[in-house]
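Appendix B, record 7
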Amino acid sequence: MDRTQGQSEQHEQPTGGSAPAAPTAAATPAAAGPARVVSLTAGEFALTVNPVDGSEIEPLRPGTEPARPAKRDAAARAARAAAARPPVLPGSAVPARPLPAREEERERLVRLLGRGRSVRLTGPSGSGRSALLDAVADRCAGLAPDGVVRLSGYGHQQPGELLHALYATVYEAEQQRPGRAELLARVREIGAVVLLDDLELGGSALDELMRATPECAYLLAATPDTRAPSDDSHIEEVFLAGLGKADCLELLEAGVGRPLTDEETAWAGDLRFASEGLPLRFVQAAALLRQRDELNHTDEDDEEEEPGVFEERPRDAVHVPLPTLAEGAAPAELLASRVSESARAALRIACALGGELPHHAHLPALVGDTHADTAVAELLACGLLTPVGTRYRLAPGVARQLEEVGYGDTASEEARTAARHYAWWTGHASVVPARVAAEADAVLAALAGADVVAAVLLARTAAPAFAASLHWEAWERVLRSGAEAARKAGEVAEQAYFHHELGVLALCEERLDRARAELETSIGLRGALADKRGTVAGRRALALVVDRETAGAAVSPPLRLEAPAAPAAPEAVTVATPAAPAPKAAPGPKAAAPAASEAPTAKVAPVAPGARVAPVVPVSAEAVTRMTPVVPMTARSEAPTTLSEVFEDAFPLNPKPAPPAAPRPATAPAPAARGRRRLVLLAGAGALTVVALGTVVSLALSSSDTVPPAQEPAVSATPTVTESASTAVNSGNDPAPEPPVSAPPAETPEPGQSAAPTPGRSPARTPSRRPSPTPPKSPPATSVSPPPTTSAAPSPTPTQTAAPSPTTTTQTGTGTAVPPATDR
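Structure tokens (predicted):
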């Protein structure tokens, strides 16, 4: 029974060899006996196939790596080849099929393989390709150092599984599945003649198989509809045509066991024309003639025989005519009608499983007849079955012919019965994983046609066996089918198990993205079920995925939270073109404070003290000069602790324009140049001092002249001026009255301007009534207190002087300032 379901059998023995424990009423999976646990080596991992909680994977421990495998000798290869043949069938011996006349093709194939050339043998289904491969294998036994290797390409669309099968055939590596790198390194050393039957891959996939094994000569048997190899593969092409008329008659006589009559000879000629001389059609035609002879058997033919009581042969003479030409071209219906009932039941099972016939040991349980195992030999003698590797399946075209006459009507019921039977069989402790792997195609076919409940049970028991047998292509297929069936059936626990196994399989095959997705899905499902043991196993596997991703991907350096230290001795490593010399500052208001756009193109950053600076040699405009790039850093008393402080050091929010620097002299500075530099520094310091003093004085004057905000607001105030005898009253917005003849006209501020001083400037004095050649402009309007009014005292023309600083002040002339008038 299924070991994972907590059921026990009395004849099952524990793996330790001790006596079986007595079953109790409350049987648990642990009390029912130890589960079938298999330890494998998969590349760089140690894999433990656990059918209860899921497979466990971990890296190989130091010292436990498997040794380099050795190649099998001739005796071991012969024993393995004998085990790879189809099993001996019970019942009457099946007559050996005569080899068609293929002497010319056989000699050509042996000659090409002896030269180390690879050949593609192309022929339609039923042309005798497998029989020709058997004949070639006997002639090529001593050509290669590793002998002849027989492989089956049925169902393989990628070269990976074929390479693993070749590796397992040549090397003695039990319970080991190498990684891709090791696999390619080992199969490159194989020198053998590989006979690959039922090839299904071509193009780039076939090229990859050929490149991986350069020391092997291949004989590839394929049908014409198989994808052709690429033009660069250099594979010889041999086409296998139909037989001639004489060869067809010889094959038919050998199958019947007697000479043909004239009527049968004419019928055989018409059949050859209709079937294009395919040998399979004449094997089936020989079976039709044998059945006809048995039905036409009379009492005179067996005078010495006593017919038994239970003999089914009729006593009356019944003449059965020759089959028609249509029945000879499609003989499956007629042949199936003349076989036993057990054979017909086996045909129904094969139709339900997509043409796959279960092993003859399973037929008694599936059919319900204890002698149903003899049906395989009966069907094989009729030409309705053909060998494929170690198993049998329906011959080409037979399944379609049987389904047309009603053999596929009970397909769903037959598939459900087969799925439940295989679920019991694959979970039985006495069944070794290699035996399950040999029945993989029938198990997968039963899984595809069963209902969701039977499919979940079958996938749950068959998956660990496929994993332990190293048949990982079947393992992946059964896991995907089981996950889909569990989703439809609502079995969350089983669905989590299938996703966990898919993640482990993807990790073993280095598909890290797929492994992460499957494991995260499994962990989420098991977390919802509160399955602690399964969650721990999934998290361990996911940790390995993270480690493999970290080791395989380039990791970017982490962001440093401390300010980078300045280099001790920076070297000139940056190449830059020399900038044009900075123009001399012209005297004037804007000479001391250039704008940011007027800054020199090339700036010389300060160099750390004690650093070596290479002397600069004057070069032309097209030459290059090596400069030392120095990143400006903001000195901090303590290291930054947040990311914002780190980015503030590298990218300040309000960058200040760097002061203009004089071009670097070509030679060492002379003493006179150092003196001039001191004078420039002293002049700049004096200018800054004057600016600071002017700012202080202007702030003091403005604070003493302003009116408190409680008495007069500081927004858009109109000053009131009290004139003397010679001055008229004038407001800030009204036009001035007409002055007397002796007095000059009063100056009115421009519209939209205010007489309030700007921040950072000293308050401008009210100009005198005397006309000046350059009337000063009123400062821009700001929200400050109104300036005081002054009397019309004569004053010279005011002169503005700009200080080299963002703060600009305006100085008045040399005239005497009159104190402001106070409102009475």
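Remarks on this record: Residues 503 and 517 are 7 Å apart (CA to CA). The longest strand covers residues 217-222.
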